[in-house]
Amino acid sequence: MDGFETYLLAAFTKKKTPIVVVDDLDQADFEVEGRFEHHGRHWAEQLFLQKSNLERAAIRVKNRKTGVTAFTYVVEKEGPWKTGQSAAEACAKHLKAWIEHGR
Question: Residue 88: enclosing H or E segment and its boundaries?
């Protein structure tokens, strides 16, 4: 996930997402895959055109036994950030809601 997994793991903790993360993939029932993109704007675009940086993130939770996709979420945010933290927190929040209420 090119570093996005670090923000995602922190977001799972911050949002109290009810999952257990394991280091060994063979012990996992589900696998989280994701992608993060940051599109920075030139300072002139931000100042004169009032355009912000754009972040896009997507996660997919797949059942490892059946291969069935259990959950997907895509988020697109504009703002001054560049890290992926905000997008990761949105993913964690929606995964938590799905686990607690959506199954």
Answer: helix 85-97
